[in-house]
Design brief:
With 263 residues, this protein is an alpha+beta fold. It has six helices and twelve strands. It has a seven-stranded mixed beta sheet, sandwiched between helices. A five-stranded antiparallel beta sheet has the order 11-10-9-8-12, with no helix packed on it. Strand 6 and strand 7 form a beta hairpin. The longest helix is centred in the last third of the chain and has 22 residues. 41% of the residues are buried.
Length: 263
């Protein structure tokens, strides 16, 4: 089913998260559009939804493949009263919301990959990107961008992605009404965002660990030219991974790509 602003507005009217909604058949990036709206004083919860993106943004300046008519590309304007240092935790909060959303459609093996991906069966189905504007007084706004592969077919992925990416349709064998998925997504984001505002990341941590399934697992962390290995021992209150290296020392992982190792 094609998306329209009228249908989305009717579905999302009155929501704390997801309304008002701005729909575009095509944009450069929903994060870019949401940023512009935030600069023009858009209220918290304002959503941008696009049918396709020409410059979809991923983490570390990577591109996000954004074909029309099949997936969800959305960004939200958030204005939380938190310290700027806590802003990256919203990526983890969103990961929990998306993992819970996807689990509701009964695919096998939904997991979270720190810090910003959600996987099904070890393949990427969702990417999350947060961007912040702050001043000396604190956070002005945060843009929370989410891309979910919903109805993409296996052959629709670029060849380089076919072994590492998947979609709900591929793993379940059925297509989905994207408007219903968007509504469910915003409901779950509102739930976990409220928990986060009330209790901080500690209120989300146990659920994050459940979906991450990473405690006691050996990992390799790659950041730019640096690579290190260790075993995950936990995640701090600030969302930082903690691992123990081969020498028994502990290291806090604040950035980089994390890969599970066989062990």
């Amino acid at each position: 089913m094609n998306l329209t602003e009228e249908q989305l507005t009717a579905t999302l009217a009155g929501r704390r998260i997801g309304f008002p909604v701005h729909y575009f058949p095509e944009v450069d990036s929903t994060n870019i559009r949401a940023w512009r709206l935030a600069m023009a004083d858009a209220t918290e919860g304002t959503a941008v939804v696009a049918d396709s993106q020409s410059r979809g943004k991923g983490r570390l300046n990577r591109a996000w493949q954004s074909p029309p008519g099949v997936n969800i590309y959305t960004s939200l304007v958030l204005r939380p009263r938190i310290e700027p240092a806590a802003a990256p935790q919203l990526t983890l909060v969103a990961g929990v919301a998306v993992a819970e959303l996807l689990t509701g459609y009964h695919p096998p093996g939904v997991t979270i990959k720190w810090p910003n991906d959600v996987l099904i069966g070890g393949k990427k189905v969702c990417g999350i990107l947060t961007e912040m504007k702050s001043t000396a007084a604190g956070i002005d706004f945060i843009i929370l961008g989410i891309g979910i592969n919903v109805n993409t077919g296996r052959g629709d992925f670029e060849p380089a992605l076919r072994e590492t990416a998947t979609s709900l349709k591929i793993v379940t064998g059925t297509g989905f009404d994207r408007r219903e998925v968007i509504s469910d997504l915003f409901s779950r984001l509102e739930k976990w965002y409220s928990v986060f505002l009330a209790r901080g990341f500690p209120g989300v941590r146990e659920t994050w660990l459940h979906y991450a399934d990473i405690l006691g697992r050996p990992i390799r962390v790659v950041f730019k030219e640096d690579s290190s290995c260790g075993v995950v021992t936990g995640i701090d209150d600030d969302g930082t991974l903690v691992m123990q290296d081969a020498r028994g020392g502990y290291r806090r992982v604040v950035a980089g790509d994390v890969y599970l190792l066989k062990g």
